[in-house]
Amino acid sequence: MKRETIPKRRFQHNHLDSIQTWTRLVQEKVMDSDSIQQEIASSWGRCISSGLDPLSPIKPANQPIVDSRRLLEQNENGKLLDIARLQMKQLYCSIKHNGHYIVILTVLDGVALEVLGDKKMLAVGERLGVTAFGSCSEKYLGTTSAAICMTEKRPFRVMTTEHFAQDMQEWCCSGAPIFNDCGKLVAVLNVSNINYKAHYRYILDLTTATARAIEAEIKFRKFHHMYNKTYHYLTSVLESMPEYLLLIDNKGKIDHLNSRAASILGKSQQDCVGKSVVDDFASTYTDRCLECNAELTWQTGKGSTVEFTSLAKTLASRNGDNGYVGIIKPLGLVRNAGNKAGYTFSDIKYCSSLMEKVITRAKKAAVSELEILIYGESGIGKELFAQSIHNYSHRSEGPFVTINCAALPIDLMQSEVFGLEEGMFNGAKRGGNPGNFELAQGGTILLDEIGDMPLELQANLLRVLQEKAVTRIGGRKQIPLDVRIISATNKNLYSEVMAGRFRDDLYYRLSGMAINIPALRDRKQDIEKLFSYFIEKHRATMGVCGNIQITPDALKVLVDYDWPSNAREMEQIAMLVLNNIQTNCDTITIEDLPEFLVSPSRESGYSLKK
Ligand SMILES: Nc1ncnc2c1ncn2[C@@H]1O[C@H](COP(=O)(O)OP(=O)(O)OP(=O)(O)O)[C@@H](O)[C@H]1O
């Protein structure tokens, strides 16, 4: 087929020109490209190259078969349809009083995802196979506005004899492309009718505006989803932290807090959010308190007080609205009521005989008066054991106080652990501040992360152990102590002694009875029970109902994993899984597990540190 070039160019549809050009094409096999719009000429060219005969009737029987289920699963087509349906209905309602129309949503390979219109136009469409999940591709229908929009990636109208196939030449179509949030073309929206006079120019504008509205909804849903996901992650992370955390905005109002923080303040989370720190909790609060590491006393709903030390970080936002992350330290509650250990041995979930032996040993240790040194990797349950030992001992009615020996700067730690004599610093109260050892009187003190205790403090600690008494910083008086010491570490303390980082005399004092908690990877029998326990523990708060099972495949993935951060990591993963699954889901499958667990390359697996 020859192409003739006439120097005159046309950009608008002219019925007479296109009918002449088309007739010439059919009768003389000559395409006069310059007497029709260039986009139409290109489409006709493609139809000719694909062997389409303009005169042969369009038969639905020749249509390529489409697997509708697969189509909906591909490329987020299901979501697109969900969004577009409502907009298509609105578009149709705004034009239907002008005549008979059909609104078509076509996806990339030319398949119609949705078709709606009045009876007459639907019947016209049906005769040509223009139905939901029917192919409307260029190879089948010839030139259409949808086909041109796909190629040109902009709105386009195809009128009557601009259609290549004779069977389509009654049709008038206005189409507009739909792009996703990444700017990728995903579909074309199209309005068609078979009455030339009722295919007004504004129909193309309306179609384009509706396509833009669909795009905006796609973006909105994506951001909404991302926002929800981030919010859930943030909440899960805050909830799983052992600290009492608050996010405070630059006006001193509480933006968010974890449930631990709310419980220590004696209020619900809802009651705390939006409340002013100054008006409702700590009247001496200022931003400077946070910046200069000052201590604050918070009034709680239960009439007691909580020390709020400024282990706070500034959160800078782009628009300069700085906020803070605050950590409430429940020292005040310890002073008022004594700190209670919540866990007992019955809270330790296991099946393995290895763990059975460890628990038997820990119970023996509990009823003795020996100092106990608990060894185990990070997140394995050392604190859980320490609390259980305390509750199993005759000191169970006394306080249980934990000191994290790695967490605080040395000066703060001195006063925290050993107490502060009155008048030592401006912050010291009348009568001085008792340290953690005094607060643990009659009970147990857990020296967590003992392997990280600075050498300077080790000397003071040794003195306390030898003398069974404590002297506050800046004071002279010795205060006799009746405290049982449990230490915990994830380091090899003996190697630390050998390396000169830990005092040998202190090491021998602390390790009256050693308890080794084996890593989770060394007791695979416990994995199923522990994972089910964490799922059940968080199920309700994460909004998932019902009794949840795990498939053998998914369980195998969990069993095969190394669990570098042990039970704490497993708890995080259980929460991520709950976040991934539907609220009414009753089975956890491999697809619900985080990617790094399932993928064979485990190097990128994360490990969580307290
Ligand atoms: N066998 C178990 N059964 C039930 N819960 C467990 C078990 N082991 C650990 N956990 C839970 O896992 C979390 C981490 O435990 P814990 O804080 O006691 O670990 P840790 O060894 O003290 O950690 P770190 O070394 O970071 O101080 C806690 O929520 C704890 O209750």
Bound molecules: adenosine-5'-triphosphate
- Could you give a short account of the major beta sheet? 5 strands, antiparallel
And the CATH topology of the largest domain? Rossmann fold
CATH class assignment of the largest domain: Alpha Beta
Structural domain count:
5
Kindly report the name of the CATH homologous superfamily of the largest domain. Answer: P-loop containing nucleotide triphosphate hydrolases
Task: Look at the helices and sheets and give the structural class.
Answer: alpha/beta
Helix percent reads 40-55%
Pfam families: AAA_lid_14, PAS, Sigma54_activat
Domain Sigma-54 factor interaction: 348-579
Domain PAS: 230-281
Keywords: ATP-binding, Nucleotide-binding
Task: Please describe what this structure looks like.
It comes from Sporomusa silvacetica DSM 10669. Residues 230-281 form the PAS domain. Residues 348-579 form the Sigma-54 factor interaction domain. Keywords: ATP-binding, Nucleotide-binding. This is Acetoin dehydrogenase operon transcriptional activator AcoR. The chain is elongated, with a radius of gyration of 36 Å. The chain folds into 5 domains: 2-49, no CATH class; 60-223, Beta-Lactamase, CATH 3.30.450.40; 241-328, PAS domain (Beta-Lactamase); 338-518, P-loop containing nucleotide triphosphate hydrolases (Rossmann fold), CATH 3.40.50; 521-598, Orthogonal Bundle (Helicase, Ruva Protein, domain 3). Strand 6 and strand 7 form a beta hairpin. The termini are far apart. Helix content is 40%, strand content 17%. The chain is α/β, with parallel strands linked by helices and 610 residues long. The relative contact order is 0.06. The strands form 7 sheets. It has a 5-stranded antiparallel β-sheet with strand order 4-3-7-6-5, sandwiched between helices. The chain has a 5-stranded parallel β-sheet with strand order 15-16-19-14-20. It has a 4-stranded antiparallel β-sheet with strand order 9-8-13-12. The structure holds adenosine-5'-triphosphate.
